């Protein structure tokens, strides 16, 4: 099985040059950092402007240097405020195309909406890829059972580790020799997987259909690890989460949570939901399309806590649910995978 | 308060000529029938091709006749299979524009996507309106409480009477002297209201924001009657229903149901949910953005039942919930409105 699965035919792809532009904070380079963390073998170097103050620890490469070393695609993995594609980014994208690189972007504004970028791509016969644009042909969800096993990461809120958890589960399952594929639903995940659908950019009627599309029937007994989005308890985005839950028809759920989060992301009036209520609500909704769905564990993002507190809270929450609870980044996901395999023996 | 509310500035609008084309079944003219039923004062006549076998009972008018009698807009209220805009419809839309009428459509395929229709509109300085196209500028939902009162019609399934119920409630409240506005979320409702957002055509991240937009703060103590969509229990569309529920922040819910329906629309494997479970799930989800939400009653579409069975089932379901239960079309909604007013006295 290739790392990039069924999309190996698209012209853009690794090796990557990661574009950081003029980024000055960690949050704005989270797409690039996700790629460098999960697919280090694909990332040849980084490309930074003079005023950039953050680094991925990769070699700094000029565009022609990167091309000479074998880079195939420059990934614009740094967002301005609002995901806007400023003049600098446009100029650098054009320069990359002129240097012979394809260009992929996780920004909200699309490469294809800039005539000068489109012209440079045509001039150089290079490809443009907007990871946040949903392609055509997504069907309405049909709710029909399909073969294969699927695990969905759900969350108490946005940005609590749903993508990292799904990727960590993929890695652990593969290391143990189980067929397993991360299924991406957001722009960073799509750049990491080389495939996927940005479900929050899909027209509302097609969200469950998009989830069905990215995790089709699989006869090999392996697992699809589907990247969750949002939260059933987020007033802005819960509809996306529910459509994704129904379309995924998950056999297994992992609940993701950030224990220092005080309120829902962007909404100070809304407290983070109770963990048990959140798990129950997700299981109840998931039963509509898969009555046999099971909770497998809890994944905490404990980056805001000292190590001993992180261990304590994992133990406490694990005991509360009677399920494994770990931080996928600092502790791994081995106890979750043990429980997953034990829960689905064949 | 004008019937058309804040959209009186758009060029298209009543009086209407209702286009039935070559329709041969009732289902395909449901948009036209909805307009003729709910806004008879706006509907001057119908326009049919020779092979059309259905009628709204309105005068048959040629395009120039309709224009001479004061028609402003031809409404394409008949769908081919799949909502496709066939050659006949395109030719007739162009003829209507050439006769000096604006053209509005509730079809899935857009008027604006046909260059010949766009050219005819420009040539005649007439407007085109696609009721199924979501306009730009819809914000992300913010979940903040807002003034005014809102009632949302929710359902066990698609096509169980959510739009008719909301319109019947608007009519009854207005007759009793209460400020009340139907808020449309689907193409037929939008043509009836002259305003609204087709929430199933909105990008998924913006569904709750769309619901907030169409039912803004209102300081007059009146009611917004918001047209529900889909069902929390429909595997294809539940995400739309949940986003609409959260964005509406409803004070009151009316549950709509079609008692002869055996399975979810389009999905024979999925039974219609239990009425009480459906009401509870809607209330539980609605509490996220409005903890004080109350169930007000049940609206049944009993068109598939003899009159005495219809009366029986309304009584039985009403007793089960301890709430009024009526068929809005054959029985009216007076007991629901009585209970609504009693539940929210000021």
TrEMBL record, chains A, B:
D-glutamate N-acetyltransferase-like N-terminal domain mapped to chain residues: 56-132
Source species, domain of life: Bacteria
Domain D-glutamate N-acetyltransferase-like C-terminal: 140-337
Record PANTHER family: DUF1611 DOMAIN-CONTAINING PROTEIN (PTHR40690:SF1), GLL3100 PROTEIN (PTHR40690)
Name by which UniProt lists this protein: Uncharacterized conserved protein, NAD-dependent epimerase/dehydratase family
Originating organism: Frateuria terrea
């Amino acid at each position: 099985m290739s790392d990039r699965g069924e999309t190996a035919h698209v012209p853009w792809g690794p090796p990557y040059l990661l574009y950081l532009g003029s980024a000055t904070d960690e949050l704005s380079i989270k797409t690039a950092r996700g790629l460098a963390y999960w697919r280090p073998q694909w990332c040849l170097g980084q490309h930074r402007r003079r005023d950039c103050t953050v680094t991925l620890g990769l070699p700094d490469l000029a565009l022609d240097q990167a091309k000479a070393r074998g880079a195939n695609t420059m990934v614009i993995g740094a967002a301005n405020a609002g995901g806007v594609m400023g003049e600098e980014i446009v100029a650098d994208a054009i320069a990359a195309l002129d240097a012979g690189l394809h260009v992929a972007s996780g920004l909200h504004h699309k490469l294809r909406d800039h005539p000068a970028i489109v012209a440079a791509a045509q001039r150089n016969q290079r490809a443009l890829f907007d990871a946040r644009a949903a392609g055509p042909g997504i069907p309405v969800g049909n709710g029909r059972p399909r073969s294969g096993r699927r695990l969905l990461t759900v969350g108490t809120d946005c940005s609590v580790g749903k993508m990292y958890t799904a990727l960590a589960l993929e890695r652990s399952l593969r290391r143990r020799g189980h067929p397993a594929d991360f299924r991406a639903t957001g722009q960073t995940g799509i750049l990491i997987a080389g495939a996927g659908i940005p479900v929050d950019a899909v027209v509302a009627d097609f969200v469950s259909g998009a989830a069905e599309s990215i995790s089709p029937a699989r006869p090999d007994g392996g697992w699809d690890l589907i990247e969750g989005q949002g939260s059933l308890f987020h007033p802005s985005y819960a509809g996306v989460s529910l459509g994704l839950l129904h379309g995924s028809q998950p056999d297994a759920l992992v609940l993701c949570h950030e224990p220092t989060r005080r309120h829902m992301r962007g909404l100070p009036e809304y407290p983070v939901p109770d963990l048990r209520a959140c798990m129950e609500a997700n299981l109840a909704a998931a039963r509509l399309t898969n009555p046999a769905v099971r909770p497998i564990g809890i994944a905490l993002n404990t980056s805001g806590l000292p190590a001993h507190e992180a261990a304590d809270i994992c133990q406490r929450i694990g005991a509360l649910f009677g399920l494994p609870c770990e931080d996928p980044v600092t502790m791994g996901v081995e106890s979750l995978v043990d429980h997953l395999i034990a829960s689905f023996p064949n």
